[in-house]
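Morning!

This is the sequence you dropped in the shared folder:
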Amino acid sequence: MEKLQAFFKRKNIVISAKRYGIDALGAMAQGLFCSLLIGTILNTLGTQFGIGVLTAQLIQINGVGYTAGGLASFMSGPAMAVAIGYALQAPPLVLFSLVTVGYACNALGGAGGPLAVLFVAIIAAEVGKMVSKETKVDILVTPIVTILVGLGASWVIAPPIGGAASAFGVLIMQATELQPFFMGVIVSVLVGIALTLPISSAAICAALGLTGLAGGAAVAGCCANMVGFAVLSFRENRWGGLVSQGIGTSMLQMPNIVKNPKIWLPAILTSAVTGPLATCVFRLEMNGDPINSGMGTCGLCGQLGVWTGWVNPSATAVANGAAAITPTAFDWAGLILISFVLPAVLTWAFGLFFRKIGWIKEGDLSLA
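The structure's back. Tokens below.
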């Protein structure tokens, strides 16, 4: 056992919840953001504003034409796998070999491809690290082992993982349709919490293929945390904190939450209110790419996802029964209220109460 531990230490293989559940998952979300999400944004901008360079087909693959955004989305599997390898501090030959692994795994995983890529890329990267620089022909051995292990793992576990994730996501969405109030609360609160924790709510929503009303509830929860913390901590962090949390991430508050968990209550309570309002009153659906459901106001991706879902639903949303609509003034009002107005007002009001009873003290939310 000691020899094995020494070997793992020498190879920088750390088997821990932080390494796999936080570092790798967070990196996967970034890879997904830089491929699928950016591709969706480019396609939406090109279509809605008639930008020729963004709507032109640049290349054909197997008879299918791809735009600039289409190519970015097409490479989401490799982008996720390489990002995971980077988070695991894989050496170059392992890292580059993960391109093939990510593409194959994402394709085999179907709608649950992102979750399958998370598991398979970790396996391939860690095995690749084990053999890296252990032979005199490392330039051959390391890529071959990494790719074959990754492809083998993809073939064995990607389809069932993808199928299970997709089925669970469908179950959540169906339950939200049947019980919009209670599921609106549950989905909004849990996804909002995931967004602020050092894990990736975006990756979770992408892995589950969360769209429709459930996606709208997830957007509500994320916005409650991001806009909520931005407004709640304004007296401590001023405009810099407002932007970094409201457009960046509420994860910045995690060190303060560890010190005083009560500062999280205003945002959590707000998400418990805005979630069912989104599902029951405004019928807010997020039918863009599922990753947007877990983005909130980060780069306004949640709102772009809702808008994209209105005018051009994603393939995942269409498979779940979505169709393009012409948004009404009520739809726009719901999006603005759920995304910005209600999170700001409610979190500020809850925070004022908790400050008065002494649960939140001056400086508890400071990012300095």
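Headline: Residues 2-157 form one domain.

More detail when I'm at my desk.
O.
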